[in-house]
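Q: I'm writing up a methods section and want to include an example of the input and output format. Could you take the sequence below and give the corresponding predicted structure tokens, formatted cleanly so I can copy it straight into the document?
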Amino acid sequence: MFGAVFALIFYSSVLLFVVIRHIRHRDELDRWLQTSELDVSTIPDGGSGTWGDLFASLARFVRAHSQSQQRLSLALQRMQSATSAMPEGVVILDDDDRIEWCNPMAEKHLGITLEVDAEQQITYLVRDLQFVDYLAARDYSHPLVLKQSRHHKLILSLQLVPYGAKQKLLISRDITRFENIEIMRRDFIANISHELRTPLTVIIGFLETLSEENNVDAEMNKQALALMNDQSMRMLRLIEDLLTLSRLESTPNLLGEKHIDVQVMLNDLYHEAESLSAGRHVIKLNSVPETQLLGNEDELRSAFGNLVSNAIRYTPDEGEVTLSWQISNGQGVFSVQDSGIGIDRKHIPRLTERFYRVDSSRSRETGGTGLGLAIVKHVLNRHQAQLKIESKAGGGSCFKVLFPENRIVSKI
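A: Here is the clean output for your methods example:
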């Protein structure tokens, strides 16, 4: 009887110990699961047996999970770094058009800040009716071209791209430059059409007159032929300038450099200026230091000649035009100074655009094609030179060409 009671007490004690051990390990597991960070180093020691195997398996799982999280975190960092370096803006939107993430370029384009504007409706921040309608339409097949009011003259292309679980990418591109190029292309086509149409209209009109059977007025015929010749030469100059521009812009077109005697070139330009002026202006040539310039002689002569002829065209009779060459701070400086009608400051940034005219009627009267300064710009770009324009309305103009030091060769 005593042995049975002892055995019962013994087995009860063992069972109580096992229960207490299970409860303790359960409480340890519960406390570990309640921690904010599931750290493998803090996993309880289950000892031997079932709990030991359980905690060992849990440790392996946590280590694998931690490694997976690290890989995901690294991939996310790489993705964010790559996206941040993109020239396009990228905004991640949820199904309700709230901002989840954006890169720095999107902040610049759209005027938003991720730290402040995360979880905000993007339409609260980009307040443009076109943009609001674009989001509401859910039409992802075409981009929206939007002019940002927060940034002067900034034109954006916005494109929605759906992905994932009802998320969207809003991609923004700065297309200001391309829009300006398109405007210049349209202006170019319109201008060249007008430039060619005018002389052709004159020529066709006179040809119709000359072809009439009863036309016997010899004096009128002589005047008509003279005008047709002038207009034909105007078209020829225009076509020649267009061909020159095309050649300068051709990528395979090599520069063909050699040493140019600047003094000889400027003497030739001086005589050409006198011939073009025909005694109507005072033409001066400042003393030229004996230097040589590394470049393409034909191209530079054309560019300098354009600057000189422009000065004579836009300087009234008895005005003064001065040509000069000097070395300043190691740079070669060619300049054409005139006492002409001058140019308002607002026009100066656009003077080298094709067919840009301060005064269209005045330019055509002087015989210009509207391409001279565009040719000058391309020639100087090919020689790593800069064009600086100083002018004011009614106060004359000074066009300076600055050559880098590596193109200046002292004569020995």
